[in-house]
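User: two proteins, same treatment. go.

Assistant:
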Amino acid sequence: MTKSVIIFTDGGCEGNPGPGGWAAVLLSGPHRKEISGNAPATTNNRMELTAAIEALAALKEPCRVELYTDSKYLRDGIDRWLAGWKRNGWRTREKKPVKNVDLWRRLDAVVGRQQITWKWLKGHAGHEHNERCDLLARDQMAALKRDHTPTQLRELLTEFRRAQEAGPLPVGDALPL
């Protein structure tokens, strides 16, 4: 019998780009698991994608999943754009490279193991589990500020921006989070 899991995800950053955090709450029957992480220089969209990737990767076996996100970028990407991007060699309809292709490829890989229903919910609207994810992600951003000096964070942000301006790596190469 396939297990049912409900997942709530959230990600964000201070500044966009800036120091970021992601989080997920996984619920299955009486079980609850919270996971979170951060990146010293990133974007909101990268953190939203990372939250979903890490939550799905945390599942030890194939499951029936309801995944809730407040990110229209994530939900539209998975529901509306992903198949076309793959068909077009990870290019948009305008023939431009897909942004965050490294994360979209990772998400595509972990999605394949699960039976997922993607659901959008309004963020910052008082939903208990979405609010918890937001708090965990913000705690991760605060940890970055404790663990890095402002100068270190600025240097990391400069490196991140340079990498973004250089464009995506060829498909198949991976970028660190």
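Protein 2:
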Amino acid sequence: MQTLQAVIVGAVQGISEFLPISSSAHIVFAQSIYKLITGSQVLTQVGSEEIFFDIMVHLATVFAVLIFFFKDIVTILKEFFKGIIQKKYDNPDFKLALYIIIATPITGIIGLILKDPTHSLVENPKIVSLFLVGTGLILYFSEKLKSKNKEINLKSTILTGIAQGLAVFPGLSRSGLTIATQVFLGIDRVKAARFSFLMSIPVIILASMAYPILEIDFKEISNFNYEAIFWGFLTSFVVGYLCIKYFMKLLSKVTLKCFSYYCVFAGVAMFVLFSICHRL
């Protein structure tokens, strides 16, 4: 792995993990376009180094969430354990922690069920582009058909956990589906985004390490290009942090329709591009 490759993938991961535009789709597109430009060369292989690198850039985005929401996380954890000890369960932060705990296994079960059927889809950018169009339509109609103002509750948590699990399909945005689900149910966009980012912490950690780490051949670990991995990690972290920061501000001013237009446009454009290239 070269440094340029690591930085490109890190930037794509950082910018698209939290924006509702599907990080998996953009990584597939970046890999496919890179291959078209360079001929037979691919952006990333599927060896131990690349699996390790994939874990690192995903963990970089987790660190971005942890740092941005550090005070919130400390408060939530404090109120959660305080609520258990004092048997007081009506605190909003206690409920939020409980909702994240409930949503995580729901997501995990669905992700495990769909993992194998969706695994091969990453090799087909045309299919991924159609799923990205689907993300755009979901974002659009979540705003169009949203309910009246409500708060996060058990029902919205379960549905959001299911939505997050369905994001295992490459092209379906994790943040897009979770935020759209809550907005559709009447939850404020900023609150929905905050909950989406917080509930991503355990899911990304588990998804990045539970299975991929078993695929690494640790005999090869001394041959990894750690300089490239470092720059990819740093790029993913910095870009991810900035995306969270400005996305939260942006959501108070614009609707999800803005991102829906992008997803539909990008999905159609990529479908046309790879359809043409496939015929050449």
